[in-house]
Design brief:
The protein has seven helices and nine strands. The protein is α+β, with helices and mostly antiparallel strands. Among the domains are: 8-94, Nuclear Transport Factor 2, Chain: A (Roll); 161-221, no CATH class. The longest helix is centred in the middle third of the chain and has 13 residues, at 160-172. The protein is elongated, with a radius of gyration of 37 Å. It comes from Mycolicibacterium litorale. It holds the Pfam family DUF3027.
Length: 257
């Protein structure tokens, strides 16, 4: 069968006898494979396709452990007037249903939030846009003013991009206003007694929850909320809410004779 890559010009310039030689080299291709890998590794014949006017590829199913869906490809070549083809190449190639390894991803792109464990070291990438040298202004007035007054600084501090990137991530995360917990209540963190605002410009929108029964220790959006807000009213009544209360005073006590 002709390959989909064949053009009308290829077909027109391929002599009928040359086509017959190339397409008839099935057993020759199988014999070459047997010599190369052994008879037990060769499955059923899958067909052939033309690479160009003087060569074709014969394919066989690969019958090998761990190579389900792979194929043997044998390239044969011949010149016009030749009586038989010549084996040009043997190779194992993946078929349409072959199990392939996932696309290779560089190490620094594979590391995801939460992967860092005790003892692991993770350096920031070179020229990380989230960081700027500590001796430059960070762009956060509240931080820069204090640093200049005290005279101390860190080697690197958050850049404006770094603060915006973190703010967007926190706003869209599990402790942002769009989370299921926040949507289930009308109360928000900004007026909660357990809300501890961050310093600097990030404190306008974010703080840390100090309620051990809620998002304790997590950075929360000021518009986040939960059922453990400090202004949450106590339930009315007393006793277990699963049962109706009863008055012991109305119990009639009968004396035994």
């Amino acid at each position: 069968m002709d390959s989909v890559t064949d053009t009308a010009a290829d077909v027109a310039h391929r002599p009928a006898d040359l086509e017959a030689v190339l397409m008839g080299a099935v057993e020759q291709a199988r014999a070459a494979l047997t010599e190369f890998s052994g008879h037990d590794t060769i499955g059923e014949y899958l067909g052939a396709s033309f690479e160009d006017p003087t060569s074709a590829t014969h394919r066989f199913l690969a019958d090998m452990p761990g190579y389900r869906g792979w194929q043997w490809a044998v390239v044969v070549a011949a010149y016009p007037g030749a009586e038989q083809a010549t084996i040009s190449e043997l190779v194992l190639v993946p078929g349409p249903t072959a199990l392939l390894a996932p696309k290779w991803v560089p190490w620094h792109e594979r590391v995801r939030p939460g992967d860092l464990g005790p003892g692991d070291l993770l350096a920031p990438p070179r020229e990380d846009p989230r960081l700027v040298p500590g001796y430059l202004a960070s762009g956060d007035p509240q931080v820069d003013d204090v640093a200049a007054e005290v005279g101390f600084g860190r080697r690197q501090v958050l850049s404006q991009f770094g603060r915006i990137d973190a703010a967007q991530r926190w706003h869209d995360g599990d402790f942002g206003p769009g989370s299921a917990m926040a949507r289930s209540t009308k109360r928000v963190c900004r007026d909660c007694g357990f809300y501890v605002p961050l310093s600097g410009s990030l404190g306008v929108m974010f703080g840390v929850c100090a309620n051990e029964m809620s998002a304790d220790g997590h950075v929360v959006d000021s518009e986040y909320g939960c059922g453990a807000h400090s202004d949450t009213p106590a339930p009315q009544g007393s006793g277990s809410p699963l049962y109706d209360p009863y008055d012991d005073g109305v119990v009639e006590v009968a004396e035994n004779d």
